[in-house]
């Protein structure tokens, strides 16, 4: 053991290992707050190597003790990285919606999923959660833009712009490593927004990957900074709330052990930007390495190669399935609404019951409702409901008695929790009219909605719902970047027809549904590119007398058509979809 010349602090590990018992305050030595959210919590309650601090007979120990005594007032310096990313990106609502309010909420939900923000509070919408979150951290609120489609549906685009700051809360004694850790945090939570594919678990150059991801979208390079903290006695500081996008975490004030906490706590109680946190469903989905051999071969066959065609990323999303089974026994449904005739009261009552049980849709002919319900029961060899009509003229009410029937509701969600919440809300909404609750408002947590449903069933002497998580479904997608790509048409009878045909082919390549007989396909194509803020395709005549060619640049996503039971099946469906799309590149 050597004395440290010039007052240089000793290695932090040595300092923390042999700190004097009198200096070991609970707030300083509990290290559980430094660990990832889903790893074991460890608290230092003894030196790392065994030394009898009272035994001064050993010269080595005397020297070590002297070194500790002389360094108690010294500090080690730990760097915490910070990276500022300037964004100018769009997030689009999931599918087409019937109105602007629905489209807006859909877009904010997509953004909420991309950023891995904590679960919503009761009564909170995705939009209010995002706006509250952005205001809290000083981010510029997303700008909303609504696009009306030809079929009277609406999509919403959210423009993200301005500076987004990400912090490393782990810290490092090396400035460069602290910056790498900050870049890793940014990548983990901007991956979807930057259309970035899965990051290799062996990746070490996070700064390079982040810079490349931003350059792909012509965004400015990230700006790094580090905060240096003096750490008394070489112990790690309390991380407090250093992370910008983070949920406050109460630090322990007494010694703790892993037995005091569950092995994997709720995401609501940990920092959502912990670079080691693998509990987020989005991050779990992207962990698997995606084998793109078949897709690479397909691109080669079609001669779609850089610089004109690039693959931005290939990824897969996972949806979890959840079911709720309701078992009605000797149940009576009383429709208290009065009707002009007995026949109408019967039809209306069967209509309500059939829709709630999922036997038919609300769009069926109401007059056939009783017949369809009875046929359905007969096919399942179930006793038919007993009709009981009461009342007088213009106030007839109908009841269906002695109903014994099982119905299963199914929903999907990006996480098991979300899937459970969705299916419980679906069951509650469908069944509430049968239990004389016409306007029930569901809570925003699965546990509370389950309570609502259970109490409603128990009030009619029915059994609790049976909830089952039924695995997951997978969908794959690829993002392609076409730059100055040219397609030709020489098979039409006029230049105008050739240009119209080219417009149809480009739209079909992009997956835009059109009427092939439309005479305004060129206008439809130009309008689509305008909506995406892209330069319109350039049309020119070819050397052939009646030919035409079009040059365009576009980035678009192609997905497997539906949710599949396995990644391999989803990938196969994606390859089939790409084959169909690429056919439109040929004349």
UniProtKB/TrEMBL annotation:
Q: Where is the composition biased (Polar residues)?
A: 25-39
- From the record, what ranges are coiled-coil? none
Stated name of the protein = DRBM domain-containing protein
Q: Where is this region: Disordered?
A: 1-39, 266-287
Lineage in the entry? Answer: Eukaryota, Metazoa, Chordata, Craniata, Vertebrata
Domain DRBM, residue spans: 126-191
Q: Which domain of life is it from?
A: Eukaryota
Q: Which Pfam families match?
A: dsrm (PF00035)
Q: Return the InterPro entries for the record.
A: dsRBD_dom, DUF4559
